[in-house]
Amino acid sequence: MPEPPVILAIESSCDDTAAAVVAGGRLRANVVSSQDVHLAYGGVVPELASRDHQRLIVPVVTQAMTQAGVDKADLDAVAVTYGPGLAGSLLVGLSFAKALALGLGVPLVGVNHLEGHIYSVFIEDGPPFPYLCLVVSGGHTQLVYVEDGFRLRLLGQTRDDAAGEAFDKVAKLLGLGYPGGPKIDALAQQGDPAFHAFPRTLAGEAGYDFSFSGLKTSVLYFLNRFSEAERAAFLDEHLADLCAAFQQAVVDVLIDALRRAVGQTGARHVAVVGGVSANTALRAAAEALAHEAGFTLYLPPLRYCMDNAAMIAVTAHFKLAAGLTSPLTLTAQPGLALG
Ligand code: KG4
Ligand code: ZN
Hints:
Blueprint: E1 7-11, E2 16-23, E3 26-34, H1 46-68, E4 77-83, H2 87-104, E5 108-112, H3 113-118, E6 131-136, E7 141-148, E8 151-157, H4 163-173, H5 180-188, E9 202-203, E10 209-210, H6 213-224, H7 228-265, E11 269-273, H8 280-293, E12 296-298, H9 310-321
Parallel strand pairs: 1-4, 4-5, 6-11, 11-12
Antiparallel strand pairs: 1-2, 2-3, 6-7, 7-8, 9-10
The structure holds 5'-O-[(R)-(carboxyoxy)(hydroxy)phosphoryl]adenosine and zinc ion.
């Protein structure tokens, strides 16, 4: 039996510059450098993100290779995210990976960032196929039925804002900074989720499509009832309650869709992945649903929820085993969809 391949994976689709190494079928290194140049702007500035990737890519890759104890000559393949994401950011990682694969004469493995999140549960003990997967990130909210490796069925997705985007926009309204998810999560732990009933909107009648932009607007309308002085006083007293009530509305919508999808598909294995899967209330509600509906739940450890290259490395490991490599003419695809 041949030795499992040594793969270097690179992820640069948004504002995290990341590299990971899998060798001997095990994750050997996982380095993520989260850019802080965007903090002052309350969101990711694409031009600054690509410049920072340019600055960070060599040190991050070097650190991952050193941590893994592998040399360039040991690499059997170079994997990289080629979409979806910011064009200028994707190009930095992709150009670097293509040059390295060309120079070393090893295969290039292009990975869809969303597939990376979906397979992030395999970095540690993953589910058997098929499994139902809720992908909740800053850019996407999708419910996917994973038939087996690389056969995916999209059951539903958001028609407007992604769940993480809703967290980030509401955090911005509340002056909490970017990214908003972890800040709202922390505050919500001191608040009352029943403080106010924000709308639980479903897009489409019985399907699995989501809509979060109305929820963000209802938080805005709620705050606009106050004068500036009243608002400051209100937030002084009830910021945590407001965070908890907003967060509960997001969690309820996601869990309701998951409950219905489990009922309809009969899924016995369910994964919740992506940046928002780090959310304390969502994790607890998913655990409670697993108990109630009798399925096995797979949640990535927190370090693999947010963008990272370990998930790209694991996906590349599967792709390589299936003989799926990419030509060196592979281009960045900012709008790349699943499937
Ligand atoms: O998967 P990810 O790192 O990047 C994308 O692919 O978009 O997800 C980032 C998103 C951000 O919107 C961030 O606010 C959200 O995940 N997030 C959270 C939490 N941690 C990160 N949202 C809610 N609660 C959290 N604890
Ligand atoms: Zn992501």
